[in-house]
Amino acid sequence: FQNRRGVAIALGDPLGPEAGRPDVVRGFIDAAERAALTPCFFSAGEATRAAIPAGWRSLVVADDTIVDLPGLEFKGKAWNSVRSSLNRAGREEMTFRMSRYGDEPWGVQQQIRAISEMWVGDKGLPEMGFTLGTLTEARDPEVRLALALSPKGDVDGFLSWLPVYGPDGVVRGWTLDLMRRREGGFGPVMEFLIGSSAKHFAEEGAQILSLSGAPLAHENPADAGLIADLTDRLAETLEPVYGFRSLHRFKQKFNPRYETMYLLYRDEGDLPAIAAGLTKAFLPDATLRQYAGAGLELVRGERD
Fold it and tell me: What is the spatial distance between Cα 2 and Cα 240, in angstroms, rounded to a whole number?
């Protein structure tokens, strides 16, 4: 969990045997309250929602987008855009490679860093953290790297995939983290990379591919309250910068099924503190000048 502005924010679901989930949830809440912190769970699933104490509240914050890999075939009208991207990549002699950052030669690593730094430099805000990774996570040897290489050997784009563990520590799937592309490179590079990754992991025997939940991209119900107002405000401000909603629409090309992800919290009195904590968690390194430039009034929002 992260301690942000007096809020203990647990990201995702508890890890470990399913039977122990209620005890882990209760233990986290008790430990946070003993430390005078406000406990909450962010991007938690339905099973964790069922394990929280009576009287706690929930708010939908995203939908995890999951592609089931067994028997996956890019056939039919629903897969037209993905199939077209793969066919075009073949015509333009693009190459797909599944690798690890540490296994790539120095020149490829330099291209990956340059693409990522250019992407970050265009945003006017530091890289987001919390639910979104950076190249630091991509360097982990357990993380897979999907590369799109032009006929000249240039990196036109890359993805990082984090392992999804099942019982006994066995990897049962992969979840998307970084998406980066080189300006002026192969047009449908992301469709090419995700489609090729899905085929690769299916051949390895993986069960699922998660395209992750685009943060701040979910439509809130009319009565969702203060935290919904905050996420709507953040989404409107950051959409031109990070494109969460357009990313959510992009993922629909892969015909995923959806699993709801929640913010779980004690009561509405905690929401002002949680709102400030989440803002700081997503943008931990932003300066007040950068917040102001992006239209985010973090300090005022905390007081309100």
Answer: 27
